[in-house]
Amino acid sequence: MKFIFIKSKADIDGFKFFQKLGMKIYNIDDLEKTDKIIAKMVNKDYKTIFLSNEVASFSEDIIKKYKTNQEIRIIIAPNKRI
């Protein structure tokens, strides 16, 4: 199973623990492109996508498109740093 963590490039502390473990972290420069980035990751066959709360707030597709999708899991990280 492929998974990825997506955060804002300005968020220097987000997902730091997972980055230190060598997991894939994708930094978004322009948060207005969040939906396009999520679609890109789905097309790259990522089945689980972790989003920082900030990034999730810029997506309109999360609830509409992926809520009922059984194959793609979108997980929104809580506000506290993980």
Overall number of structural domains: 1
- Main beta sheet strand tally, sense and closure: 4 strands, parallel
Structure classification: alpha/beta
CATH class: Alpha Beta
Features:
alpha/beta, 4-stranded parallel β-sheet, 82 residues, globular, Rossmann fold
In short:
By secondary structure, the protein is α/β, with parallel strands linked by helices.
What can you tell me about this protein's structure?
The protein has 82 residues and is of the alpha/beta class. It has one domain (3-76): Rossmann fold (3-Layer(aba) Sandwich). It is 30% helix and 22% strand. The chain has helices at residues 16-20, 34-43, 53-56, 61-66, and strands at 3-8, 25-28, 48-51, 73-76. The protein has a four-stranded parallel sheet. Helix 1 links the parallel strand 1 and strand 2 (25-28). The protein starts with a strand and ends in a 6-residue tail after the last strand.
Can you lay out the helices and strands and say which pair or pack?
Layout: E1 3-8, H1 16-20, E2 25-28, H2 34-43, E3 48-51, H3 53-56, H4 61-66, E4 73-76
Parallel strand pairs: 1-2, 1-3, 3-4
